[in-house]
Design a protein that fits this description.
71% of the residues lie in helices and 7% in strands. It is α+β, with helices and mostly antiparallel strands. The termini are far apart.
Length: 687
Amino acid sequence: MRKIITLIILLSISIGYSQTNEVDSLALELAYQNQDTLKVETSIKLIKSLYDINDYDRALKYIIESEKLSNNLNYSKGIAEITYYKALIYAAKDDYINAISGYEKSKALFNQLNDILGVAKVNNSIGLIEIKRGNYTKGLQFSLAAIKELEKRNLVNDLRLAYSNLADAYYNINAFDKAIEFYLKALDVQEQLNDVKGTSRSNSQLAELYSFKKEHRKAIEYYEKVLANKVTNIDSVRGRIYPKLGGEYLRFNEYDTAANYLVKGLKLNRRSRYNEGILIALNNLGDLNLQKGKEILAEKQLLEAGAIAKKIDNKTELLKHYKLMKSLDSTKERFERAFVWQRRYYDLKNKLRKDEVKIDSKIANEPVELDPDLVKPVIEKIDPAVKTDSIQPKEGFDKFKIILYALLAALAIVSTFLILIYLKRNNNIKYTQELEEKNIKIELQNVAFQEQTKHLENVNNVKDKLFSIVSHDLKDSLSSINGFIDLLKDGSLSREEFDNLIPELSENANNASLLLFNLLNWSKSQMQSLEPKPSLFDIQEVFEDKVKLVEQRMENKGITLTDHSLRDFAYADRSMFEIVIQNLLANALKFCKNGDTITISNHISNGSCIISIADTGIGISKQNLEKLFKNSSFTTVGTNNEKGTGLGLSICKELIELNNGKIWVESTQGVGSTFYVQLPKSRPNGD
């Protein structure tokens, strides 16, 4: 009785410190109650109210006294509820060991009481704490076990937590479709409860998931829902959302809208010094300005983004930074630097992919040990006072009843075996399906690794090819020029000797120029950064410009040019076409002798432009004709020992095909060669 009076006095004093009307009302109600079990019930309601307003210390005081009273009364339901709330408070204070211990005790009590709802609520809470600690597989198991009962009773408060927990767990194990499913369910409950903070978080998570799945219009929709929420539409929230939303609009080339969000996001995040927001905004602004041709501004923004990404160790944005820097340096024809960025990009991408594989493997192989309480049937308590020895068969027990019970027992045993066989078969099927899914996933990953390995081998081959050409062919031409300059410095040449060497010097310079020209275009094409920008242009103008570049060399070699070109228009990338014409003219000049003729012409055929460059030079053998236009280093020495990289015609073929055209050659050894180029006169259908 003294304990009861003490409890009443303690609860009465606490009325003055109540934070809500509900707490005040419950405390007052408790103070004037006489029946002990009602006191415990009211005390539990009061503890729940204090827990809901996060007043854990006061709630613990009531728990201690209510626990004593429930134990004195041997009131199992009260003990179970109080133990559960005590575990909830331990969980809120990040005391994992005491929380789990309390959950297990309360669940055992709820099981004894056959309280299915109580067990479901405990399972849901265990799921929450396990997911929070990163034990996603275990957490999923408990939360899924709780969902069915919570949905059946429409306990929206508990469902709100359960759905969010499940969504977070699926998100962290990369099961994105399941994560979306439960975020949508959580969002529906949060909107019912007018949970502004929870609604904002679910919308934000859904936007990120849809962005990852490349459903960018849906991502925009959910990001804008976050911004439309006036309660959460504060600078910190807008600072996180604006850069991401701007990036989504950039996917659709809506540059003005994207720029508006990105600039606003950058300002807000600089003001709050939120590095991750600054990083995302700078990366996306760099991408936007690169697409709009503002390369200087893009480079400045991307360099700052790279420094921040390394500082805060944001690997996802660092990967994007490497890719954008590779595109920037390729556009600016800084190919050596572009190779470096490309190598860093693939190194980091492979590392992230390996980390994902390790995480997936760890989760997939994690042993799932079912908590016995999740599947344990509720067993009635047996009064220990009733001893089996006292149960004696009645005299004259009917034989028919014995047979009946024996049959029932046999039926129960057979049924049990059948159920076990059925369960084992289902488990085997499920296990086989999981193995098949894992095998498919591993196969896909192996294909991706093989593609990556092949790509890296190609990049290494490009690098080796470049070094080989630079160290041999280009070096020879430059060494010859340097030797001539050294002779001039020493005064070792007479005027006559000087005049005689000028043609050779000019030839070496031209060779070096053409070599470098082809090397740059070839390396750019190998880095997959060539994108045609077609327009209508006059073919005759291109001929006139390119002929001027080789006129002096033709005159020195004694070659005549016949110009049959006409004013006509083609629809293609003019700069790419100029590269092709320059290579074909250089090739014709290379394989002509003194007295030979080069003829240029063009005409219309089936709505296309046909351009031809013919020469009366040494021609090409049938064996060598098969080697032309291939991506290999096939080359022959010209009539004056001119050297080449063997890349010119492969570049020409790639550039013409990029512009929906064709290139071919007709040649007879000892007679001459004619190269043909076919290009469209208008935009092809479907472009």
